[in-house]
Amino acid sequence: MIVIPCPWCGPRDESEFTYGGDASRPMPSLKNGNDQAAWHGFVHQRENPKGPHVEYWYHGGGCERWLRVERDTITHQVRWASDAAAKTEPEQ
Amino acid sequence: MTAPAQDFRLPNGGNIDRSKPLRFTFDGEALLGLAGDSLASALLANGVHLVGRSFKYHRPRGILTHGSTEPNALVRLGEGEQALPNQRATEIPLFDGLVAHSQNAWPSRRHDLGALAGGAGKLLRAGFYYKTFLWPQGGWPFYERFIRRAAGLGRPPEGPDPQSQDHRHGACDCLVIGAGAAGLHAAQRAVAKGQRVILCDENPYLGGALNWITARIDGVPANAWTRKVEKELTQGGALLLANTTAFSHQDPGVCFLEQRLGPYRHRLWKITAGEVVLASGAIERPLVFPGNDRPGVMLASSVRAYIGHYGVRPGTEAVILTNNDSAYSALRDLQNAQIPVAAMVDLRKGREAPIDTGDVPFFSGAQVVESKGSKRLRGVIIQDRATGTSTEVACDLLCLSGGWTPSLHLYAQRQGKLIFNEGIGAHLPSDPQAPLRVTGAAAGEFDLQACLPDCDVLSEEAIDHDADMAAATQQATQGKAKAFVDFQNDVTASDIAQAVAEGYGDIELVKRYTTVGMGTDQGKTSNINALHLAARAAEKSPRDMGHTTFRPPYTPVLLGAIAGPATGDSLSPTRCTPFHGVSRAAGAAFVTTGTWLYPRYYPQKGEDMARSISREVRNTRENVGMVDMSSLGKIDVQGRDALAFLERVYCNNLAGLKVGRLRYSLMLRPDGLLFDDGTVARLGENHYVVTATTARSGAVWHDLEKLRQAHWPDLDVKLTSVTDHWASLAIAGPKARALLDGLAPDFDTSNEAFPMASLCLGRLGDLPARVYRVSFSGELGYEINVPAGYAPTLWHRLMAVGQPLGLMPYGLEALDIMRIEKGHISVGTEIDGRTTPADLGLARMVSAKKPFIGQALLQRRALQEKNRRQLVGLRPLDGITPLPMGAHITDAPWNGRSQESQGYLTASIESPTLGHPIALALLAGGHGRHGERVWAVSPVASQSVEAEVVSPHFFDPEGGRMRV
To answer: How far is A42 from chain B (nearest CA, A)?
Structure first.
């Protein structure tokens, strides 16, 4: 089971969230609309790490905010979660 | 009706309630048991040992164990819809009126024709299904009929489950799995620390063997001590769950439990625990020797349970066969119950009996090489392992102890590492602390005092449980008769040896080749014996063999318990539109699409579906119709950067969109493929409402919010889902304007004041409304949005005004037909996750003047190729034959051979407007192939129809009708 420490709602059960995929790569800027390599990397190239992984989770059953969450893919332990708008990982 | 006396009930003792007799039937025979019995103990009390036939050879089988490890005593519990196959008689608490039947026997378990398979044993040896039935080529369908009939175990229930199964969530600081001595102790310690505790045990009773062993704890008998601790735990706030099996533990702190609330009603628990303590005990192994499977052969520990817990006499004359010290306690229990013991046989050479065996003949360094009897054991032949001297001993009960296997399934599921222990001949946790705490016999601790360090224990139970596995495997390979390793799957010692000889010596291969451990019992009593036999055959150490993988569930789980109450209408929430009530009153037939319950068509008296749909289409094309559009997703977009945001998410240009106008728009995925279509309406300077298709509205909302929040937090834009706020009703048809005029005479509906693709905010009479001039049907059309609560009012007013105009409601089917006639695309058919705007003839919509999501990857070369599958229309050449649904497009009719597909049909209808069949299709290079002849072939329907490729816009291609 995954408990996500939502920055707005506190620690909440995974059943309130929707998984939103890898958050380790920033989306390329639209200004480089023709940069196929950048978009190819963003859309198709994925690490499949064993261990810590930064990913998006949507708190639809709570604050309706998209979060960035670091989850261990082996233990499901979540080290931190921040609002996706914050962009940077929080101070430990 | 009088039931026979329980002739094999001991005069006293046991934890059953002798004042509460319970009636039950087995294979139609009326029998009597007692409250506290299991079905197995009640059968034994009636002298019933033969309970079924084995899977492969149909050999008579009896009750081997007293719990969840049972491989033989599988019965069909109950009848009809309620019947549950493959239930372990040893685990079913007896109840009044219980009905059970034996399995895998015809015509009866006593006279079973399938037993002839025993004679064909040569054919059914290990790996037989990989070797036999291969000849002649093409013969398989012939063999298959017979194999299918013989395969499988048990019959499924005859109808839907009449019970409502249950789900429950639980949370605690400490979950203790197994309520034997070690589990009770762990729970006591946790409660003393003030923790919230859940203690579960698969048996109907807590305490495990404490219920029948003769030990004294803190001065009282072990079972009395157990009742005292149960009471203390409950008072301390612990939740005690009997009849509850922890069957899955894969993620940290999460355990799944199945609680048997009654014979047919189960509850699935998902428990979140701070700590999980595994106190699941150990499983006694049988011994393998020729003829070791006759009814009357039982594990020594189970004999003790039947005597001590159930007050049952499991035989009249016993022999004990062991390779370890623990079985000597069975000797004592048998003697205390005054059941004669004909021989005590210890496989180990030169061993003194650890207790005084009295006048029981004691054979040390001896083995059993043969058994007598068929439907019940009659005797065994004991052979001295050194001299080969044989002695035949009569008995009807043979107590086996082949050593003990710590029950570490959940530990291994949690990725705990196991290490082989030579002494007990089985695996132990390599580290009892990680990833969860293992305690008691599961951790190899068989000393009761050590399990209960806070108590004063007086016990004569063997502390040393080391087993002589070398002697056990040697015995297994004596003689010619079948020596069974896996009773449930009928795997013998020679099958294991054969697998190794044929090169399948890896333990995972031994398992798959012989099917050992692949029954519903998952080899609880057989895996370790198989491991030792395979090691012996491979001349390797068992330590080097490793072990097979432990996978959930620990024991079979009722499928209904996994489904829980979420079945039928309760499977998912049903969404109804604001027009649901008035649609129902208008006689609509409904259909479930996604989560929505939607009006499919509105039949009039005597009409079937096809006639109704056809009438709805014609009426809309000739007069005026109205259709509920409320399930479309509606998102309100506001903010200074609303336009900038929408420009990025839609691929078409929106910069020129004026206030009061709307535009059909396309959304791409980041990989350049079409994601969704809808309208963007500009309500104010910085205020837009966009629609998403019903199917994609959730995904579109998620995506837009993710882009706004995570990727473009700098944009000043807010999104609000207003899907449920607005009820939408589209009116369409040549008389739609007259209808709107009738509804709101002061509303200027002229083409000049209210042209195509414009919108009007305000009132229709006294109803607040947003009216959009749009058309999906291709007719003059308006979409009227009112706050959801006004939906019935709007409906009734339109019907009143529209009656003289011929207004009729139409449903989803007519809507779909009209969009196909127009060649309009739809999500799920043409927008299928593989098409681009250009594929669907919408290339000119894609803006070259601005950046948008999907722009870069839309330019990939593969998406630009000329021969991509492109949207076309198809018309049957003969003008009358419907084109088969889902057909592929080829250059020749179907001839039974494989053909190259040039594409496929996405929609096929008989057009009520045109009077002939039409279809939409995605055809390779289709845009340049109008006028060509192709074949629409459906191998499934054995149909081939020749068709002409045409424009997908079948009806009114210039769109004049909607602009009038």
So the answer is: 9
